[in-house]
Design brief:
The protein has about 160 residues and is an alpha+beta fold. The protein has a domain at about 40-145. The chain has 6 helices and 8 strands, in the order ααβββααββββααβ. The protein has helices at about 1-20, 30-35, 70-80, 80-90, 125-135, 135-145, and strands at about 40, 55-60, 65, 90-95, 95, 115, 120-125, 150. Strands 5-3-2-8 form a 4-stranded antiparallel beta sheet, covered by helices on one side. The N and C termini lie far apart (about 70 Å).
Length: about 160
Amino acid sequence: MNSVRIISAIMMLLAVSALAVSGADGQKSNVKNAVKMEMKNQTHCPVMGGKIDSTVFTDIQGQRVYHCCPMCSNKLTADPDMYFEKAAADGIHFENIQTTCPVSGKALKDTTISLEHAGRHLLFCSETCRTEFEKRPQEVLKDMMAPKESGKKTEPGHSGHKH
């Protein structure tokens, strides 16, 4: 008889726990999304994994991405989504260097309107532009694609790399 009561109590506890985890609409809340991942500054090259050289970088899609050597820039620009998404999954934060809104092209006076998108921390001049970006992110990112500047264009004198 006691074992029946214990089992009943356990079942009741499980039912109450399930209700606590469920949202008002009956869907389970995503606890993983509730906990914001702590982002870390970049310390390693996203292409080769070596320690970054702060004089070797690619400015792309509003982000400054540091590399271990100049040769890594071409691989980054060939498939930026792959490197940005992997960095985001690893909790890596690239330096934002935007001076203009990616949607309107206006100068950024306020940096509080922002959005994290597939490994990029993007800034906008208004909520309207942020909403517009969310409607067509790939189109806007494509417009931002061209690297604006790269650092240290020297002959590859880097041993241990296999590009």
